[in-house]
Amino acid sequence: MNNRPLPSIAGLKAFCAIAETGGFGRAAERLGSTQTAVSHQIAQLESWVGGALLERGRTGARLTPKGARLYPSVAEALRSLEEALRTARADAGRDRIELSVTPEFSSQWLAPRLAGFVQRFPDIELALSIGYQTPDFSTGRADLAIRLGGGGSSLVAEPLTTDDEFAVCAPSQVERLPQRQAFLAAPCLTYDGVRHTALDWQRWFEQIDAESVAPGFADRMAAAVSFPTFADMLAACRRGEGFALVRTSLVEADLRNGSLVRAFVESQPSPFNYSLIYPRAALVNPSVAAFREWILVEATP
Fold first, then answer.
1. How do the pLDDT tens digits run along the chain, 301 residues long?
2. Is 60 in the same domain as 194?
3. 37: CATH
4. Which range marks the domain in which residue 56 is found?
5. Which of 106, 164, 167, 213 could serve as 263's disulfide partner, Cβ 3.0–4.6 Å?
6. Number of domains forming the structure of the chain
7. In a domain, 63, yes or no
8. Do 264 and 286 fall within a single domain?
9. Does residue 71 contact residue 22 with C-beta atoms inside 8 Å?
């Protein structure tokens, strides 16, 4: 074999995820990563193969001819490799946790912290199921879940966040906002999964009793700009394309590093917060108990 190192598995998985979802932001949410990390991985892969694999556009990304030729082989190789590795791990009796988590919480809150869990518990395999589907505890397809609100009378729900809801924008944009009806200065941004996070612009403006509920607000919302994912919406917001309505736990890093700022002084306590949800018997599994202890500590302010 050639002694030249092969591209990273993370880069190959990112390439396949973009090919299958059609965008860097959507791929990052599927992988529980960040759009910046995915872009870096693709740049390394394209450098290795010596050419562009993806064409980037405003609405997403698509395969170049070189990428289209490469994708089927890479996807099949990754499937075979994953199957072989899972079989090896099962044979070795490694502990495994199935965690069901929403895309926004996975990419914005959980992903930056997971390295700490892996370092502390190297023998625990954490399998993430990322999506909005209801976690299936009855068949063992989920040991734990992270969702907004509670989990029902038969489940334990332990709060992870105490969020506020507020609007954010790019730092360059906030400097240009007028003193009155500042919300008219830029579009309101939304994303396709908003119904799952209850980040509703009209409800928020009505709760803060803002002047923005004056005549014209309905037309303003009709002109709102929508994006496929929360990550895509935030990326547009960082570029100065409008206001995004968010909850605290999903933009902590952006507020710390200054890539986003609060657009208005108004803020409202969120009616829903993220909770760790699991069946009462789940903690019999020491690995599940270990993850619970770890994430509750991570969520402590």
1. 456 788 899 999 999 999 999 999 889 888 888 889 899 999 999 999 999 999 988 788 999 999 999 999 999 998 888 777 766 655 544 588 999 999 999 999 999 999 999 999 998 989 999 888 888 787 667 889 999 987 677 789 999 999 999 999 999 988 888 777 777 778 889 888 777 777 888 788 877 765 555 555 666 666 678 888 898 999 999 999 999 999 999 999 999 999 999 998 888 999 889 999 998 888 888 999 999 999 999 999 8
2. no
3. 1.10.10.10
4. 9-89
5. 167
6. 3
7. yes
8. no
9. no
pTM for the model stands at: 0.66
Are 64 and 53 contained in the same domain?
Answer: yes
Instruction: Report the CATH number that the domain containing residue 154 is assigned in CATH.
Output: 3.40.190.10
- Written as six digits, the tokens of 174 are 């906030």
Cβ neighbors of 300 (< 8 A, separation 6 or more) are none
The reply to whether 112 and 237 lie within a common domain is: no
Please indicate, yes or no, if residue 3 is contained in any of the structural domains.
no
Are both 157 and 277 inside the same structural domain?
Answer: yes
Long-range contacts made by residues 157-160, C-beta under 8 angstroms, separation at least 24? 157/275, 157/276, 157/277, 158/275, 158/276, 158/277, 158/292, 158/296, 159/273, 159/274, 159/275, 160/249, 160/273, 160/274, 160/275, 160/276, 160/295, 160/296, 160/299
Of 271, 276, 275, 272, the closest CA to residue 291 belongs to 276
